[in-house]
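ok new one. same drill as before - structure tokens go in, u give me an amino acid for every spot. 182 of them this time. try not to just spam alanines like last time pls lmao
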């Protein structure tokens, strides 16, 4: 098991579509367990295989109220209902958060580490996390779903060497400092 570096934008692997896992063998399990270690070391909620440079359809989730991490192979959203605005961040886009459109609920299907089919209906954070991670497997980042371009903002002060603005404590990114994330 290993804590691996997480790829960050603009790494092109983050924009590639991951391949289906044909058999959940030792190699695939190894990738999944490395992803769990990497996710937990980063303190995140979810991680997709693209983010550690592996183009396989594998996601891992660590829900705050759950003791162990979830591992899913070939995850699919088979139904999505409703739209809501939620705040989101991504380990591959450090120090930013944005307001995005997500579904109210989803129906999920995937395979677990012992090759069993898992299905569930999800709402709230679990639904959001599944959508975010399945997007990664299709080369999609949350910044593609921003409610508006201005709804992307920094969560950390990047540089304190020139803070002659009144709003230096405000982490909202104004239009003059908005970055292009595509
Ligand atoms: Zn992400």
């Amino acid at each position: 098991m290993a804590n691996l570096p997480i790829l960050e934008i603009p790494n092109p692997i983050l924009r590639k579509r991951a391949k289906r896992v044909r058999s959940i063998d030792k190699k695939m399990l190894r990738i999944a367990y490395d992803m769990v270690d990497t996710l937990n070391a980063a303190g995140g909620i979810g991680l997709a295989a693209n983010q550690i440079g592996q183009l396989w359809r594998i996601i891992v989730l660590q829900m705050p109220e759950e003791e162990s991490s979830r591992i899913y192979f070939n995850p699919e959203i088979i139904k999505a209902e409703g739209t809501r605005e939620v705040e989101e961040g991504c380990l591959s886009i450090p120090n930013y958060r944005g307001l995005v459109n997500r579904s109210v609920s989803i129906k999920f299907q995937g395979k677990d580490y012992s090759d069993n089919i898992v299905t569930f209906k999800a709402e709230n954070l679990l639904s959001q996390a599944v959508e975010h991670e399945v997007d990664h497997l299709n080369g999609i980042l949350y910044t593609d779903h921003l409610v508006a371009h201005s709804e992307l903002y920094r969560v950390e002060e990047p540089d304190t060497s020139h803070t002659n603005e009144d709003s230096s404590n405000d982490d909202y990114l104004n239009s003059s400092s908005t970055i292009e994330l595509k």
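The CA atoms of residues 45 and 63 lie 6 Å apart. and btw The pocket of zinc ion is lined by residues 90-92, 132, 136 (CB under 6 Å).
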